[in-house]
Backbone:
């Protein structure tokens, strides 16, 4: 099978100056028996913990801490598997690219579904955010093919920042519970919206904004280049 074309990784995230040295240190200190595939499995395990935590938060808010722990474990496995492969020079470009993105998609679906079945976020809002996240993922994969650029970050934000925001939101959910705000809209009247629906909805709008802006810009650029 032909290897995918060489691409440039663009990961200019806000937390990059902290994350990159941490991942390199972890890769250098991983035991010999730890492999990228095992780290990928650890990331999936973290996702299942997040899903379980959100589902059980319907019974007690304390389970939100399990959801947050799941985000940390998912970051550990998902961020370190590729780093370890590159550190040990055991990359498998075709297999790694395929497994990484298929697993990421499955994990993202489970996380957003968990968020939507929790008592803090409306399921419809969570699904709209999931569509926005998947639209961005599709854009990333497409650009990897047509432009040789694997861009993980947009506007200094990437998956790591999304996890951090989710953990902070979980803490607010635990300490303050469901909070509602009222908006007095013309021709509609007073509309009551949960603060976390507002937060996730805002994230969804940003995702769609990044998607349409980047897709249009790259499309115009490719048309002018005659590619």
Residues:
């Amino acid at each position: 099978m032909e290897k995918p074309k060489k691409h440039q990784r663009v990961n200019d995230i806000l937390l990059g100056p902290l994350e990159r040295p941490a991942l390199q240190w972890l890769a250098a200190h991983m035991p010999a028996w730890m492999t990228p595939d095992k780290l990928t499995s650890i990331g999936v395990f973290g996702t299942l913990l997040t899903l379980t935590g959100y589902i059980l938060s319907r019974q007690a808010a304390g389970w939100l801490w399990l959801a947050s722990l799941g985000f940390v474990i998912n970051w550990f496995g998902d961020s370190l598997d590729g780093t370890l492969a590159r550190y040990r020079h055991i990359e498998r470009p075709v297999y790694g690219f395929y497994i990484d993105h298929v697993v990421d998609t499955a994990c993202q679906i489970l996380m957003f579904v968990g968020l939507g079945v929790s008592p803090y976020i409306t399921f419809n809002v969570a699904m709209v955010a999931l569509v926005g996240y998947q639209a961005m993922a599709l854009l990333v994969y497409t650009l990897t093919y047509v432009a040789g650029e694997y861009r993980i970050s947009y506007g200094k934000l990437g998956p790591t920042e999304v996890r951090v925001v989710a953990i902070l939101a979980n803490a607010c959910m635990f300490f303050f519970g469901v909070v509602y705000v009222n908006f007095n809209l013309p021709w509609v009247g007073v509309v009551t919206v949960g603060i976390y629906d507002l937060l996730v909805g805002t994230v969804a709008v940003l995702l769609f904004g990044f998607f349409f802006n980047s897709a249009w810009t790259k499309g115009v650029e490719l048309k002018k280049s005659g590619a």
Remarks:
- The chain has a mean pLDDT of 89.
